[in-house]
Specification:
Helix content is 43%, strand content 24%. It is of the alpha/beta class. A hairpin with a 2-residue loop joins strand 5 and strand 6.
Length: 188
Amino acid sequence: MEGKLIIFSAPSGAGKTTIVRHLLEKFSDKIEFSISASTREPRGEEIDGKDYYFISKEEFLHKIAKQEFIEFEEVYSGTYYGTLKAEVERIWSKGKHVIFDIDVVGGLRLKSKFPEQSLSIFVQPPSFEVLKERLRGRGTDSEDKLSERFAKAEHELSFADRFDVILKNHDLQTACADADRLLLDFIK
C-alpha cells in the first residue's frame, strides 16, 4: 500500500513539533511519525529510534552513497538530516499515512518527489520576534547557535508560499484545530 504524506515544515520555534505531536496523539490509528536520521548529538531527553535515528556522519554518507534516502540535507555545517526510504515503507506497510516534522528545504524536496501523495503545510509563527523569543526561551543553545538559528529561520520564512497551505500559529489551540481539519480532509 502506498499511503499519503503529511509534511509539516517551519523554522525552528514556530510550533510545528507541538502541532505534529497533537496530531499523532489524536490520530494514532491513521498516521505515524517518520523518524529522521541525523548526525547531530541527542538533546535533552531525546531517544535514538524514537526522536531520531542518531548515526555517525560516516554512516550517513554511506547511506547517501547507497541511495537509501528519499531526501537529505546538510542543515547546519557538518550536521546532516534525512528521510530514509525504509522508514516511509515501514509506515505504509502498516496501512498508515506518514507525518513529517521536517525543515523547510526537506519539506519542499519531499513534496517535489511525491506531488500527488503529499500535503505540505508551512507553520507560520505570529512574528519573527516571537520566534526569536521562543528559541531563546528554550535555553538549549549558545548565543552563536542562536544567531545561526535566527538567520536560518529568517531565510526559511521566505519559502512559506511554496507550500500547499500556510498554517498560522498565533494561538496553539486554534492551530491544532486547523491542523486536525487539514489532515482529515486530506486523508479521507
